[in-house]
Amino acid sequence: MSKKQWGNASWYMFHTLAEKIKPEHPEEIRTLLSYITNICVNLPCPYCSQHARVNITQCRPNMVKTKEDLKRFVWELHNRVNTQLQKPNFTYEECVRKYKFARTLPIINYFKHYMSISRGGIKMMIVTRNKATHVNNLLRYLQSILHKFDQ
What cofactor does this protein call for (predicted)? Predict the structure, then answer.
């Protein structure tokens, strides 16, 4: 499994969840944010997780209160990572257009597929187990609130 594979799966899911949460469920925003940040700081790549901690803090997660705030948080976080990776940034409008028509359940399943692939080596055992715990917790949570998302 490559960084590109699990990275794309993660970004697609984060953006889709932020875009597709129904406006009548603002009570889920802070919980979704918490799960997103937990996944980011427990990525399959320890180096990436360390950078994610810094980037998350710079994006001011404590200011996220609404669906719009969550969408902008994920967009800003993604652009910070793109800058670090020397990839092009995208505008907020481009982000909204891209994820507006995403299908929630297939995106969640895509994420589940790539995050369940094991990485080899003894050194990765603890990282993999920790990642699996956070991924499984997120997936259980999403299953319980799937009706709160546009499909």
Answer: FAD
